[in-house]
Amino acid sequence: MNSLHARHRAVLPDWLALYYDRPIEITHGEGRHVWDADGRRYLDFFGGILTTMTAHALPEVTKAIAEQAGRIVHSSTLYLNRPMVELAERIATLSGIPDARVFFTTSGTEANDTALLLATAYRGSNQVLAMRNSYHGRSFSTVGVTGNSAWSPTGLSPLQTLYLHGAVRTRGPFAGLTDERFTEAAVADLEDLLGHTHRTAALLAEPVQGVGGFTSPPDGLYAAFRKVLDRHGVLWISDEVQTGWGRTGDHFWGWQAHAQAGPPDMLTFAKGIGNGMSIGGVVARAEIMNCLDANSISTFGGSPVTMAAGLANLTYLLDHDLQGNARRVGGLLIERIRAAAAGVGLVREVRGRGLMIGIELADPATGRAAPEAASAVLESAREHGLLIGKGGGHDTSALRVAPPLSLTVAEAEEGAAILEQALRSL
Ligand code: PMP
After folding, report:
1. Cα 203 to middle of ligand 1, angstroms
2. Among 53, 136, 245, which is best to mutate for testing ligand 1, by the most ligand atoms less than 8 A from CB?
3. Contacts of 59 (CB under 8 A, 6+ apart)
4. Beta carbons of 251 and 83 less than 8 angstroms apart
5. Treating both helix axes as pointing N-terminal to C-terminal, what angle do 59-71 and 304-319 enclose, rounded to 10 degrees?
6. InterPro entries, per this entry (predicted)?
7. Pocket test for ligand 1, best of 16, 52, 109, 131 (most atoms within 8 A of CB)
8. How far is ligand 1, taken at its centre, from the CA of residue 210, in Å?
9. Ligand 1 within 6 A of 133 CB?
10. Which tens digit of pLDDT belongs to each residue from 308-317?
11. How far is the CA of 136 from the centre of ligand 1 (A)?
12. Shortest CA distance to 346 belongs to which of 380, 384, 387?
């Protein structure tokens, strides 16, 4: 244990888990690479999830942060705040939600918490629907909608939550069904559930489950859900914390894979929009956003420095068509990873969209999840200079690949080669 690790252990909570047997202290980054305190360079295939949406140390964003910090770092809520208004205008337009209002928070958890506050107030009900295997945060309300005990420190909640099937294809009662049959079964399940409940406020769901191992339902599932939800007046909240801003390649928002449904009533965002700065937020139809009688609910949400970063980052990712890059380079990367995994018995599935690729590991003989193998691949990739992530069901048996959206073809090839080595050493 190096001394910083020992000091971390001594002073921070035991549950502040670190990756790797020998945790890494990252000291700086550039583009798609980061360096540790020993001067080792790593190709970062997880920075996208850990907030670096675009690139490490992107000069346009760094400059915007420095300039705004040099002018004023100030309360975001009591006075007019130009960068906040400008970013809100752009996000409102991009959201696809009619008559959209935007509220900024400092994290995805707080964004979902606010969406739940709004939905429960608007509907006068604290009963909500969430998907099994979901992750929406670890605050008091969001643990209550996180359908994945491995990522939820308690099961206590101020909400009454009902969990739906439909986000996971490899497990559960609908495993193995065709897209059409799967959708029919999941919708019938929802119909049945709502037929037996009292007033329900909302369904909160990730279009592609992030922490859950990058698993997605068949396209159109949420459109089919929407018809049922509408009949019961239940709101649809799309958690775009991982899927927003073009990461899934084909779409700017994850909900657009279900586009027949039109936009959700609310969407939540965070992580990558700030390219590392702490921005989260909720977009909602004005009628829903304005159902609260509050003068504000966040001191730091919308701070001018984070908003300046968000504006610069959003401008960069739109101007450079990073969504298109996610589609092209992500498409190539998933092909390379599928080829790398071919014949590796422990790989049950390689799945994903754009630059959001999951590799699920399971014992081929028993079908049981293989979390130890996932850890072994993570360690081996690190030894060879590649950082990736872990996730997945109750068992953390999926590897997660989510590089910054500016990933180049050469970097995709390099990372896939390291992954191949790591998978074949299993
Ligand atoms: N929603 C989703 C889909 C997430 O992946 C996360 C973070 N992993 C959150 C919400 C919570 O975001 P934060 O960590 O910024 O609070």
Report:
1. 17
2. 136
3. none
4. no
5. 160
6. Aminotrans_3, PyrdxlP-dep_Trfase, PyrdxlP-dep_Trfase_major, PyrdxlP-dep_Trfase_small
7. 109
8. 9
9. no
10. 999 999 999 9
11. 6
12. 380
How wide is the angle at C-alpha 19 spanned by C-alphas 10 and 34, nearest 5°? 110
Structure token digits, residue 121: 């107030």
Give the amino acid at 240. Answer: E
State which amino acid sits at residue 361: L
Look-up: residue for tokens 């990367």? Answer: 333
Bridge partners, 356 (sequence order): 353
Which tokens in the block code for residue 345? Answer: 């018995």
Are the beta carbons of 239 and 268 closer than 8 angstroms?
A: yes
Does ligand 1 come within 6 angstroms of the Cβ of 137? yes
Question: Contact at 8 Å (CB) between 124 and 153?
Answer: no
224 neighbors 150 (Cβ within 8 angstroms): no
Amino acid identity of residue 29, one-letter, is G
Amino acid at 152: S
43-74 confidence digits (pLDDT tens): 999 986 767 789 999 999 999 999 999 999 98
Q: Is the CB of 242 under 6 A from ligand 1?
A: yes
Q: Which residue has the tokens 């590991």?
A: 361
What global pTM score does this model have?
0.97
